[in-house]
């Protein structure tokens, strides 16, 4: 039974390359045409493959519908939370998870610092979009025309002398973030708070969320916080792998 399932599933990546006839499928699987036909018929019955008028097979609409449904039901917060907790246990600082929705960047999860000095961020509240590290990552992933349109209509409050002053500076920073694959907020929102962030990618490579580690200067300096960047990026990569289905969930 497991061999049959394995063979049937092996047909799908073959057809993802383009339509194939019965002989091509049989050759790829290393089986007789009758076996390949039986597998194709079963997949066809379930809508996972489709037989064209030229007798070649292609991926079926049901497969795309299942993929879309699965993506819509993925909860990045549920997948990420255990990773965020583990990161918090390793470094002790506040960990955030954020997403971009309807022209706002919102925190959807937070693990509090173990230190007495706490941050006032709240789950469900928007971040300071022109300075927050997570916002830079999420907006940097937008197509260029969308980035420019958004940057032009944003306000640029000067929370501190290090805040982003205008659209041109913001677009320049987003370009740098897009190139390097990580972001910081070093006193841009609050002079005493620093933050490093990394992106979480979906199966298509797009940024679906961003996570960060933040800490006040009284706990660690900006330079000390930046030494955590490799750990933050590894955590984001682990979440990306699990979210996109490239790696299995780690046992809890």
The overall average pLDDT, rounded, is 89
Strand order of the largest sheet: 4-3-7-6-5
Give the overall shape: elongated
Order of helices and strands: HHHEEHHEEHHHEEEHH
Number of helices: 10
What is the gyration radius calculated from CA atoms? Answer: 23 Å
Number of strands: 7
Parts with pLDDT < 50 across at least 5 consecutive residues: none
Work out the helicity level: 40-55%
What composes the largest sheet? Answer: 5 strands, antiparallel
**How large is the share of residues in beta strands?**
15-25%
Class derived from helix and strand content:
alpha+beta
N- and C-termini, Cα separation: 30 Å
Domain HTH iclR-type: 2-61
Keywords: DNA-binding, Transcription, Transcription regulation
Domain IclR-ED: 62-245
Organism: Streptomyces althioticus subsp. attaecolombicae
